[in-house]
Amino acid sequence: MGVTMSSTTVSKSRIFSGIQPTGNLHLGNYLGAIRNWVALQDEFESIYCVVDLHAITVPQDPMQLRQSTREVTASLIAAGISTERSILFNQSRVLQHAQLAWTFNCVARLGWLNRMTQFKEKAGKNRENATVGLYSYPTLMAADILAYKATHVPVGEDQKQHLELTRDIAQAFNSAYDVDFFPLPEPQIFGSATRVMSLRNGSSKMSKSDNSEYSRINLTDDKDVITQKIRKAKTDPEPLPSSPEGLKGRAEAQNLVGIYAALADVTVESVLQEYGGRGFGNFKPALAELAVAKLSPIGEKMRLLLESPEDIDHILDEGAARAEAIAAPIVEKVNDIVGFLGHK
Ligand code: TYM
């Protein structure tokens, strides 16, 4: 359990997680991460960050980046993040992230970063042309988490390797400077949709960067668009099985059943008890109805919030001040440990 921060109490458990302000948030972000953020904020001291520094590891239009930062913030609030119970801010406002990332760049080893699969995927064939920022992306992510000495990090499965690297960096720092300073943060990957797949291809991840709009459901999609995307989702001709073993080798069916289970907050077993033996002609309308019921209120609330962008900016101002109050003394102490003169 987390303990409320005050000047005299120290948090035992602290959540940190982040999301990139690049394009629309989709069902994978929601089921893999945001829904869990919302659930955890009552139990833990929670810090949630819109990671604009990470966004510029690939080219961004400045106007668009500002707008996406507001939109993602609005989506998080619309999805249930409370700006009273949690701290919500954009990364570039708290300078300690970039500062600690530099120190971590001098702790992490090339060999560790060379193993990062996300870099390989994102850099693609033209690796020589990828930015240095994209390559060192995970050291900034480690800094995000450890600038707050966060102990728990709710993420989707695709971030697991970055979390392992964060633990390695924390451990390497502690051992290089012979201190017991950083905790080793635990990834929290839970729910029945920790890896939501594309609606067009059950073996590739649902992602903002997929060229096909039909591959993902965005939190901003309206009723008709959600229904149409689910109707067009790729499936196979077989009816649904009656137990989870029957989903093996049927990636698309497995994905849709997993999405249903996560949205309805029930197990995959119970979805199959109900729909086993029925075809997709029967299952897809039920899934569409459920998705519309769960997602369209979020989209509506988000649009309403975006009508007052100055309120969103104000929320981010306050969040940044609260975040900095936690990160500044921690990073100051790091600077002192490292031997930078004038820090304590
Ligand atoms: P990002 O912006 O790609 O995604 C935000 C969150 O959504 C999860 N996610 C998914 N979960 C299930 N199925 C999917 N198809 C899917 N797609 C995305 C991600 O796992 C993530 O939890 N590097 C991070 C942002 C970050 C961060 C951090 C996270 C920066 N600093 C510190 C945690 C802690 C990223 O690019 O997430």
Strand content: 5-15%
Query: Low-confidence parts, pLDDT < 50 over ≥5 residues?
Result: 1-10
Bound compounds:
tryptophanyl-5'AMP
Please give the oligomerization state of what you see.
single chain
Distance between the termini: 30 Å
- Strands in their spatial order, largest beta sheet: 1-2-3
- Per CATH, the superfamily of the largest domain is HUPs
**Number of spatially distinct domains:** 2
User: For this structure, what is the CATH class of the largest domain?
Assistant: Alpha Beta
Give the overall shape: globular
| SS field, number of helical segments | 13
Main beta sheet, described? Answer: 3 strands, parallel
The proportion of residues forming helix, as a percent range, comes to 40-55%
Number of strands: 5
CATH architecture of the largest domain: 3-Layer(aba) Sandwich
Describe this entry's structure for a reader.
α4 (96-105) runs parallel beside α13 (309-338), α7 crosses α8 and α10 (251-264) packs across α12 (280-305). It is globular, with a radius of gyration of 21 Å. The protein has helices at 27-40, 52-55, 62-79, 96-105, 110-114, 117-123, 132-146, 160-176, 223-232, 251-264, 268-275, 280-305, 309-338; strands spanning 14-19, 45-50, 86-90, 152-154, 186-188. The protein is mostly helical and 344 residues long. The protein is built from 13 helices and 5 strands. The chain is 52% helix and 7% strand. β4 (152-154), α8 and β5 form a beta-alpha-beta unit. The relative contact order is 0.14. The chain starts with 13 loop residues before the first strand and ends in a 6-residue tail after the last helix. The protein folds into 2 domains: 14-194 and 308-338, Rossmann fold (3-Layer(aba) Sandwich), CATH 3.40.50.620; 213-303, Tyrosyl-Transfer RNA Synthetase (Orthogonal Bundle). It has a 3-stranded parallel beta sheet. The chain has a two-stranded parallel sheet with strand order 4-5. The structure holds tryptophanyl-5'AMP. Tryptophanyl-5'AMP binds at residues 16-20, 28-29, 32-33, 51, 54, 141, 144-145, 153, 155-156, 158-159, 162, 194-196, 205-206.
